[in-house]
Structures are given as C-alpha cells and as structure tokens.
C-alpha cells in the first residue's frame, strides 16, 4: 500500500485486522519497534528465572515475581500490537492537525501500561519500605492514569476533549511522581535502600516523563512525529523503565540483603517504617 507524504501515519479507509498486520510489516521500523520488545521481554524473563533460582525469602520472592510479571505483561501486549489485534485506525476530530484522516492508534500500549505499571510501583514501594496502603493507592492512581490516557487516544468527538483526558491523565501521573520523589525517597533513607532506590527512581521518573511528551508530539497530539518515531520512542522508554529497572532490582534482591528481608510484614521493609513520628 502506497500513501504519499504520510505513508506510515494515515490510511484512507478502515482496514481489517489482517490488513493492519500487513501494514505493520510493510513499515520495517514500526514492526521492529514491536518485535524488539518481544525479544527483550523474553530475555528478561529468562534472566529473572536463571538468577532467582536460589531465592528463599518469601518477601524477596514476591519482589522477584512482581518484576517478572512486568515482562510477562509486556511480551503479551507487544504480541498483540505485532499481530494487529490491538491496533486501530481512528478518524481525527476537527482541530487536530490531521483532522478528517484516519490515524493508526496503538491502543494496546495502554494495556501494557495499565497492567505492568502497578507491578513496577509495587516493587518500588516495597524496596522503599512503604506501607501497603500507600502502595495500593499509587497502583490505583497509575491505573487511572493509563485508562484516562487511553480515553485521550480514542476520543474522536472533540479535539479539546482529547486534551482534557490528557490533562486528567497527567494529573494522576504527577501524584505518582510526588509519592516516588518525596514520600518513598524519605522512606528509602530510613530503611537503608536509598542507594538502589535513587537509581530506580531516576530511571523510572525520567523515563515516565517521556511518555506524555511523546503523546503530545506524536500523531495523537500535535502530529509532529510519524507513527514509527512515536512507537520507537515508547519502545525505548519501555526498555529503560521495565527491563533495565528489572535487571537492577533482581541483581540487588537475589542476595537477600537485610534491608529486603528484615520484616515479615510485606508492606514494610523494617518495623516502624511508615509509622507516625513521635511528637
């Protein structure tokens, strides 16, 4: 299929799933942005299985399993994108730079983030020594962030409404960032995991800021980037915030340091962490 100017952005008529699949593989760069993540997610799963065979502590096992689930979700989701199952062409509303044209929307990526990001936050919260209530609250916030982000991508009734969904999603995102940078940083200092947590929070937070930026610059927002550019941007960010972060976590916890195993409470690393300070 040959489309002039915006070949890998726009199709003029609705397409079947098979045609979408063929369209993806006609664009080598777009296809590679999916396939590369399937390969990396698979390698990460194998790495975790190989490295964590000797883990015996229940709390450490929970962290390891949660990190592995991040890649399990990713490999499933990227397979959906590669097959065309979770791709869709939608007509952009009036006011959008590509108004009236049908644009490829990778809505399956939002499935990846909805199901994988809570596991990332679960692990970060446990390493920081946060309490279960705060961990579950941030997980709920990230689900809200991803769902409203999906709404922004799929809304075709109004360009303004797309951006309103984007603002809502970004608001939830900023709440999560605050918890990571402020609350969990303070708790990590008290539990003795601040060295690892500092590395993880930098990779995670800096990487996560890239997602809304790519959304705004890509075809879903101002359409300054082509689809394959946006897709590769998301894929690179996934590599940083999922696989690299996972490797760092596993390499740290497999030695079962006291800062990870010191307490039986799965919501807190050390006794007293998260408890109100004395007046």
TrEMBL record:
A single MF term (Gene Ontology):
photoreceptor activity
Q: Which InterPro entries match?
A: Arc/bac/fun_rhodopsins
Transmembrane feature ranges: 29-50, 62-90, 110-128, 135-157, 163-181, 202-225, 231-254
- What biological process terms from GO does the record include? phototransduction
In terms of SUPFAM superfamilies, this protein maps to: Family A G protein-coupled receptor-like
Q: What is its main location?
A: membrane
One GO cellular-component annotation of the UniProt record comes to: membrane
Annotated coiled-coil segments of the chain: none
Q: Where in the cell is it found?
A: Membrane
Q: How does it sit in the membrane?
A: Multi-pass membrane protein
Q: Which Gene3D superfamilies match?
A: Rhodopsin 7-helix transmembrane proteins
Which keywords does this Swiss-Prot/TrEMBL entry list? Chromophore, Membrane, Photoreceptor protein, Receptor, Retinal protein, Sensory transduction, Transmembrane, Transmembrane helix
Give the UniProt family note.
Belongs to the archaeal/bacterial/fungal opsin family.
Output this protein's name: Halorhodopsin
Organism the protein comes from: Natrialba magadii (strain ATCC 43099 / DSM 3394 / CCM 3739 / CIP 104546 / IAM 13178 / JCM 8861 / NBRC 102185 / NCIMB 2190 / MS3)
Highest classification ranks of the organism = Archaea, Methanobacteriati, Methanobacteriota, Stenosarchaea group, Halobacteria
């Amino acid at each position: 299929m040959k489309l002039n100017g915006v070949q890998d952005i726009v199709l003029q008529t609705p397409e079947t799933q098979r045609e979408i699949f063929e369209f993806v593989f006609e664009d080598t760069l777009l296809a590679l942005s999916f396939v590369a993540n399937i390969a990396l997610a698979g390698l990460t799963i194998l790495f975790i299985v190989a490295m964590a065979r000797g883990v015996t502590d229940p709390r450490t096992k929970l962290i390891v399993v949660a990190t592995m689930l991040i890649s399990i979700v990713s490999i499933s989701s990227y397979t959906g994108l590669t097959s065309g199952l979770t791709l869709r062409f939608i007509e952009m509303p009036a006011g959008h730079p590509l108004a009236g044209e049908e644009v490829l929307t990778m809505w399956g990526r939002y499935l990846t983030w909805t199901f994988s990001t809570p596991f990332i936050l679960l692990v970060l919260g446990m390493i920081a020594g946060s309490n279960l209530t705060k961990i579950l609250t941030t997980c709920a916030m990230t689900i809200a962030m991803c769902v409203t982000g999906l709404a922004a991508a799929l809304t075709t009734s109004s360009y303004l409404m797309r951006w309103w969904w984007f603002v809502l999603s970004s608001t939830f995102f900023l709440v999560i960032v605050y918890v990571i940078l402020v609350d969990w940083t303070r708790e990590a200092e008290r539990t003795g995991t601040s060295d690892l947590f500092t590395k993880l929070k930098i990779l995670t937070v800096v990487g996560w800021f890239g997602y809304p930026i790519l959304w705004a610059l890509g075809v879903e927002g101002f359409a300054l980037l082509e689809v394959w550019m946006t897709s590769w941007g998301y894929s690179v960010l996934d590599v940083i915030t999922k696989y690299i972060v996972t490797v760092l976590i596993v390499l740290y916890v497999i030695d079962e340091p006291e800062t990870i195993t010191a307490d039986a409470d799965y919501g807190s690393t050390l006794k007293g962490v998260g408890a109100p300070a004395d007046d």
